[in-house]
Amino acid sequence: MKASIVLLPGDGIGPEITQQAKRVLEAIGDRFGHEFTFQSQLIGGIAIDETGDPLPEATIQACRDSDAILLGAVGGPKWDDPSAKTRPEAGLLKIRKELGLFANLRPIKLFNQLIDASPLRREIIEGTDILFLRELTGGIYFGESSRTGSGPDETASQAMVYSVREVERIVRLAAQAAKGRGNRLTSVDKANVLEPSRLWRQTAARVMAEEFPEVQYDVVLVDAMAMHLINRPSDFDVVVTGNMFGDILTDEASMLPGSLGMLPSASLGSGGPGLYEPIHGSAPDIAGKGIANPLATILAAAMLLRHSLNAETEAAAIEKAVADVLAAGLRTADIARGGPSVSTDAMGDAVVDQIKQ
Ligand code: NAD
Ligand code: IPM
Ligand code: MN
């Protein structure tokens, strides 16, 4: 197979972890006889510094022309001034919107080898295997915003908007995913307070009743969900929710497997190239130290193979290699719980070596 992959390393630890995921993809190419070509493009703070734009047109074009996109992370204190004209994060939101990537798949799967890396007790987290589907191109992230007035009367607002169409398509995808696994779907909203959540709840209930009567379906309010995730995570199968709730709940859920540094994601739309990234950010507190965990990005590369290149065997080979290096005791600092730890590069080397075997 031939495939062209755009790398968007971005800021902070982004370049460090993307480099390791690229090496892993190259090792997969060698082992399975595929020809992957890579090109790096600018996004985020580094793109602002070099071009004034967090998502230059050349990046969008290269992404459109590619088979799949692998992103590190964007953002950092250098670009955090609240009165700045633009922000690194705007580049990420724009690429999601431009490519129509409305569905963000965030699997929360435990590696048994890491069960003691979680701050939660083994009895609670054992058996956890949740697939979050976070709506990614609508909701409050993309609502109209404004700032008016001055002094104590200055106000700011941002609208939360969802259309029936937007809810239908993400719920359908989530229900289809549920059919392929535990056949259970939970929709999370705040329908007791927010109008868009009431539209979300009504639409989801209709789609489920009309199109997926065989899938077990329930609804949970987002505040209660935050609690259930910690108390009884293994009760959930597929969870579908809006953009902001999905952002928050999945960072919370990352503590079940033990670290944000372990969690990959896939952003998919209807047809074009998918975008794959860790769910974590640019981790400015550890950037440049060579200690970031590259496994989330390496596992995102596995999702890229599975969802964009239809290469299930190759994806599974990466996931097995990761499980094997964990079983051998290798840990980056975030999952070492104070024990001995290895560098970003050493973790990448170990996964590459496993794949070569
Ligand atoms: P963060 O996810 O970057 O970091 C949170 C904590 O997790 C930090 O202590 C960090 O060191 C740790 N961490 C994250 N990834 C890790 C890894 N791979 N290995 C080891 N430890 C890891 O969140 P933040 O600090 O709130 O945000 C920093 C910047 O990243 C902000 O500018 C934010 O906007 C941006 N951000 C970008 C993305 C993205 O590009 N997709 C996602 C989230 C945050
Ligand atoms: C994520 C990040 C982004 C989001 C930011 C950086 C725009 O937190 O990918 O989870 O909120 O979607
Ligand atoms: Mn986030």
From TrEMBL:
Residues 4-351 form the Isopropylmalate dehydrogenase-like domain. Pfam families: Iso_dh (PF00180). The record marks 141, 190 as: Important for catalysis. Its EC number is 1.1.1.85. GO terms for molecular function: 3-isopropylmalate dehydrogenase activity; magnesium ion binding; NAD binding. It is an enzyme of class 1 (oxidoreductase). GO terms for biological process: L-leucine biosynthetic process. GO terms for cellular component: cytosol. Keywords: Amino-acid biosynthesis, Branched-chain amino acid biosynthesis, Cytoplasm, Leucine biosynthesis, Magnesium, Manganese, Metal-binding, NAD, Oxidoreductase. It is found in: Cytoplasm. Binds 1 Mg(2+) or Mn(2+) ion per subunit. Substrate binds at residues 96, 106, 134, 223. It catalyses: (2R,3S)-3-isopropylmalate + NAD(+) = 4-methyl-2-oxopentanoate + CO2 + NADH. PROSITE patterns: IDH_IMDH. NAD(+) binds at residues 76-89, 281-293. Mg(2+) binds at residues 223, 247, 251. InterPro entries: IsoCit/isopropylmalate_DH_CS, IsoPropMal-DH-like_dom, Isopropylmalate_DH. Its cofactor is Mn(2+); Mg(2+). Belongs to the isocitrate and isopropylmalate dehydrogenases family. LeuB type 1 subfamily. Catalyzes the oxidation of 3-carboxy-2-hydroxy-4-methylpentanoate (3-isopropylmalate) to 3-carboxy-4-methyl-2-oxopentanoate. The product decarboxylates to 4-methyl-2 oxopentanoate. Homodimer. This is 3-isopropylmalate dehydrogenase. It comes from Stieleria maiorica.
